[in-house]
From TrEMBL:
This is Acetyltransferase. The record marks D139 as: Increases basicity of active site His. Residues 5-83 form the PglD N-terminal domain. The keyword DNA damage does not apply. The active site is at H138. It holds the Pfam family PglD_N. The keyword tRNA processing does not apply. PANTHER family: ACETYLTRANSFERASE, UDP-N-ACETYLBACILLOSAMINE N-ACETYLTRANSFERASE.
Length: 218
């Protein structure tokens, strides 16, 4: 028996789990199960899928695979490390309409929602989330546990470091191989922002052009 788990039964998880069913063709495979895993769940099922906690998942007999649909990237990392240490394997979720064009390297545990695109010669790290209508263009380098909200436009020669979050509708200007636009580790790009220059680690930027947010005391 092969068991495929989506960890996180919130809104994004409910959007992603049908993509898993489409990928795997469960109607013709009796030796395969798709489930939700969520320690905070109050029900036994959700949207037609069995719902269990992490301990129950790990006790199940069979070959276990997982993906994580939790927005908090630090939580994604913690859960992934634990499940892998317990013998489960990550798998990538890719919608049938997602496009992966040419010579891209994509790490384990990614989620590519409908109408997402990765063009050419991009490198993407572990547990990347690409929500609907987002794209990664040529020669980009994306770190681990990076999140794209819907409709993110990441143009060519951009570097996005680990745990960065790019908000809905944000656009990152194209860099060059010699001078890429760099979004630092843990940075947040606000919804609808236009990023025209690099963003320092653990900095939140917003606007057009995107600028660091200031506190009320500044």
């Amino acid at each position: 028996m092969k068991i495929y788990a989506i960890v996180g039964a919130g809104g994004f998880g409910r959007e992603v789990i049908p993509l898993v069913s489409q990928m795997l063709g469960t109607t013709s495979q009796e030796n395969l199960k798709i489930i939700f895993v969520d320690d905070n769940a109050q029900e036994d099922s959700l949207n037609g899928y069995r719902l269990v906690n992490v301990e129950s998942f790990l006790r199940m007999e069979g070959e276990k695979f997982f993906n994580i649909t939790i927005a908090n990237s630090k939580v994604r990392q913690k859960i992934s490390e634990r499940l892998i240490s317990e013998g489960a394997s990550s798998f990538t979720v890719s919608a049938l309409s997602a496009v992966n064009l040419s010579h891209n390297t994509i790490g384990e545990g990614a989620v590519f929602c409908p109408f997402t695109t990765v063009t050419a010669n991009a490198k993407i790290g572990k547990f990347f989330h690409a929500n609907i209508y987002s794209y990664v263009a040529h020669d980009c380098v994306i770190g681990d546990f990076v999140t794209f909200a819907p409709n993110v436009q990441c143009n060519g020669s951009v570097v996005i470091e680990d745990h960065a979050y790019i908000g809905t509708g944000a656009m990152i200007r194209q860099g060059t191989p010699e001078r890429p636009i760099v979004i630092g580790e843990g940075a947040v790009v606000g919804m609808g922002s236009v990023v025209t220059k690099s963003v320092a680690p653990y900095t939140t930027v917003f606007g057009n052009p995107a600028k660091p947010l200031r506190s009320a005391s500044q």
